[in-house]
Design goal:
The termini are far apart. A two-stranded antiparallel sheet has the order 1-2. Helix 2 runs antiparallel to helix 3, helix 3 runs antiparallel to helix 4 and helix 3 packs parallel to helix 5. The longest helix has 44 residues. The protein is mainly alpha-helical. The protein has eight helices and two strands; from the N terminus they run H-H-H-H-H-H-E-H-E-H.
Length: 257
């Protein structure tokens, strides 16, 4: 006769406490299960450090690869690495998962199409969609940072990633504008900038409010965008420092309590 589920559970619980090694075998089983639960957590935390590393790698290699058709094809493929890592990070939140995956697939499709059929329309749409994706990544990661109850290495990596993603987002906006309105950016002697690496350089020095003046916006619309990026960089640093300091104080007060 089959035992009821409640009695069967109590018998298994009593048997697990008996001497003779059965308790130890049960413990090893539970240890294995614990490891399998912890593995996805480790995997999910890897994009926190890999994302800023991939962004820095793109920034450092962009001037070297922004010349010649073969190098630019490799550069286009390299640009998708932070896109994929950002999608992995955003997919950990259900609210951002579907939108980020759809935008990533759209960016990948347009990137491949612009290489196979190079024309200004596809390039403009690709850079515009890439700017939208980077802006979405900034918003999603900043919401994670804003809700931080403590300061950990993941939060610091996220703050670094957001800052670099802001530079990449404005860079994509400038590239889209330069495709739609050629000659929007150039040098002080009125020579037009013909390399995208110069626009990336211009975006980063504008975000950090350094502004050497060797690459300048030549049209009024481009100047307003550059001014907005400078304001964005200053506000982001101020707000992020306030968020991290507040989270650190809450962490200290909870530890002392």
């Amino acid at each position: 006769m089959a035992l009821p589920p409640l009695e069967l559970f109590s018998l298994k619980k009593e048997a697990a406490l008996l001497p003779g090694g059965f308790f130890h075998s049960q413990a090893s089983i539970f240890d294995v299960r614990t490891d399998t639960v912890q593995v996805p957590t480790r995997i999910q935390s890897r994009p926190d450090i890999l994302l800023p590393i991939s962004l820095l790698l793109v920034i450092l290699l962009y001037p070297l690869l922004d010349q010649g058709d073969l190098r630019r094809m490799f550069l286009s493929a390299l640009m998708f690495v932070p896109v994929i890592l950002s999608t992995v990070k955003l997919s950990q939140t259900k609210r951002w998962m579907r939108v980020s995956v759809l935008l990533m697939l759209g960016v990948l499709a347009l990137g491949v199409a612009s290489v196979i059929w190079p024309n200004r329309t596809l390039l403009g749409i690709k850079w515009g969609l890439l700017a939208v994706f980077f802006c979405l990544a900034v918003i999603g990661l900043f919401s994670y940072l804003r809700n931080a109850g403590s300061v950990t290495s993941e939060h610091l990596y996220t703050a670094m990633s957001i800052y670099l993603l802001l530079g990449m987002a404005w860079f994509a906006v400038y590239c889209a504008m330069d495709v739609v309105y050629p000659g929007s950016f150039g040098h002080p002697n009125n020579t037009v900038s013909d390399r995208q690496s110069e626009l990336l350089y211009f975006s980063l020095i504008t975000l950090s409010t350094v502004g050497y003046g060797d690459v300048v916006p030549l049209q009024s619309e481009a100047r307003m965008l550059a001014a907005l990026e400078g304001i964005t960089g200053v506000l982001y640093v101020a707000i992020t420092v306030a968020i991290l300091v507040s989270a650190y104080r809450r962490q200290n007060s909870s530890d002392q309590a």
